[in-house]
Every structure is written in structure tokens, then in C-alpha cells.
Amino acid sequence: MPPAAPSRVVPGQPANQPVPSQAVPGQPVPNQAVLSQAVLSQGVPNQPQPTLGQRPINQPASGQPTYGQTTFGQPPHGQAAHGQPAYGQTAAQPPSDRPASAVPYSGGAPYQPVSAPANPGPYPEPFRPARASHRHSVLGVLLVVLFLVAGGEGFYVYDLNNRLDTANRHIAADAANESKTDNELQTRIKALEKATAGSLDSTAVATAVLPSVFRVDAGDFTGTAFAVGKAPSGGGTDLLTNYHVVRSIYEKGTRDAALERDGQRFPVKIIQVDTTNDLALLESTENFHRLSTAAAQVEPGSPIVVVGAPLGLAQSVTTGVVSAVRNDFPGEGGKTFIQFDAPINPGNSGGPVVNAQKQVVGIAAEKAQDAEGIGLAIPISVACHSFTVC
């Protein structure tokens, strides 16, 4: 059977397909017919034609320009640029043996040959820097945070300063109150001392004084001596007594005497004498407990304790008060004496007269004959001036 003769190709119309009676605006006429006609003209069997509502793979979507048409504006992301096929599609090229006038007009621009780019493909997403407004927002937030932090720290420092000032004021007030309280206490102590000056704790005074008092053995005579003052440069202990206690041996050229207490005997030497004031300074190589001396003159009415060895009876204690401080005692040539009423007897000479503060105020020297309660003592200041041992 002879082959069928090819149908005649009419320019501008596809073969075996009726020409649409009316073009719909905005919808291009499918150009698949052109390709079919071109294929039929080369002797390729006719291919089934697409039905309405379907679109060939190389045919643009409804509302899109056909091959060779130009649109304005940036194509959407993923869509081919002007005149370029979409990614993965092949651009429909008109047959090389067919003029451009054979392409049917479907309402767009006539076909124009366009050269394809060397490396067709989708355009990369353009770099879009961060907007200045976003940076400004971040900067604004940071400034607000910094302002809040600085404000909080400033308030905290201000609060600390206020607390410190308050604490300093409280400390100053407390210090003033303490100073006032201390002054009040000192005033009360002085008042109590003055009030209790007439109250003598004879037991406490005797306990403190007795270890420093000794009986003196000076040949045919005995008396009393007591340790006083600071330690000598060569060591040992200085002791005071009356000159008339050691006069008998001193005038004979003897400088050696002895101290006795609690059955013990200690040798001493006569170092210096003051015959005018009836005083003598003794020195022992032993280290005895020393009594302190009063800096001020004793006042009348002050209680006293007298310690000595009357009639050789060592460690005897009597008490009384200062009757007067006078320099008009008959037969003494204007010398100053402390008059007291504590009982004394021969052997008390050279013993200490001690006040309530356990300080030596005088040295018992003699008593009035044919009278009771009138004893005389040399002020301790005279002895300290004569021998510089206090």
C-alpha cells in the first residue's frame, strides 16, 4: 500500500488542527502545533496532540510570554530570566529550515531570534546586608541596658554612702557617750576614793607591808628598818631607819649590822647617814620586797598603819590617824613632823608609817614623854631628798 501523501502545510496554520476562530486575550495559542507541523513536514509520523487544559513541557504557563517575548521587571526566584528557559527545561527553538514568519502569532510579540547564554541556569540569591534599622534597634537596646545598669550601680553606691554616713554618725555618737560615761566613772571613782580614804583596811595594808619590814640588831640597841625605793645599781636592796638606832656602832666606826625576821638573820651595811634629820641608809645583798612612797604630803585625819618591833617584838602592827602635820614641836628647831595617835614604843623607831593606799608617808621617830597617843614621824619626802633612793 503506497504511503500517504503528506498534507500540505499552510503558513501560519498548524496541520490537521482547526484554527481557533477567536484568540482569547491573555492566553497564548499553544505552539505545539507548529512543532507537529514541522515534524510532519520531515516525514515523522504524526504525534498525538495535547488536549485542552494540558500544557507541553516546553510551553509556558497561562499568562506567561511565549518564547521570544520580553517582560519588564525581575523574574521571580526560580523562574528563568527574559528569553531563557526555566531550570531543567529546554528552550524551544524554531526549525532551522523554517523562516521566522512561519511561527504563528498568538497575541504576543513576533518571534525574534535570541542567543542563549553560555552557561544558562538560575541566578543565585543576591546578598542582602542587614538593615540599618535593625542595627539601630540593637544599639538602642544595648544603650537602654547600659543606662539601667549604670543607674542601678549609682543607686547602690548612693545607698552605701548613706549607710556609711549613718554608721559613722552612730559611731561618733557612741564614742561621745562612751567618753561621757568614762568621765562620769572617773568622777565617781575619785569621789569613792575620797569617801573611803577614812576607811582603812588595816589587814590588807599590813599584809602588803610586813614582808618589807625587819628588826634591826645594832649592838646594844634594836629598832626597825624597811626596804624602799628602787634597786641599787649593784643589786641588793636599800633600807631606811633612824640614825639613833645605829648611832652607837656607827660612832665606833663599825658599819656592820644585822636584820632579823621570822627567825632569819641577814647582814647589812651602813652606807650613809643624815644626823641632822636623824636618818640612816642601810644596804643588803638580798633582794627584798620594796615599799612605794607617797608623792604628796599626808593630810590630817588620814588613817595610817604603823609597823615595827616595839621592845624587840618584831612584826607588830598598830593603827591610827594623822593628828597634824606641824613644824612647831618644842625642842625640834622648826623641823616638820607628822603627828599621829597610833601607839608606839621603844623599838618602833625607824618603822614605816603607811597610808590606806599602802604607801609610806613617814618614818616613826619618837613619842612624847609622859603622854599617850602623841607619836612623831619624819616625812618620807625628807628621806627621799637626803638619800635619793625613792
Automatic annotation (TrEMBL):
InterPro entries noted in UniProt: Chloro_Bact_Ser_Proteases (IPR051201), Peptidase_S1_PA (IPR009003), Peptidase_S1C (IPR001940)
Keyword vocabulary terms for this entry: Hydrolase, Membrane, Protease, Transmembrane, Transmembrane helix
Domain of life per record: Bacteria
Membrane spanning stretches: 138-158
Transmembrane listed as a keyword: yes
Disordered, as annotated region: 1-126
Pfam families assigned: Trypsin_2
GO molecular function: serine-type endopeptidase activity
GO biological process, one term: proteolysis
Family annotation (SUPFAM superfamilies): Trypsin-like serine proteases (SSF50494)
UniProt biased composition (Polar residues): 29-73
PANTHER family tied to this protein: PEPTIDASE S12, PROTEASE DO-LIKE 8, CHLOROPLASTIC
Official protein name in the record: Trypsin-like peptidase
Organism (species): Rugosimonospora africana
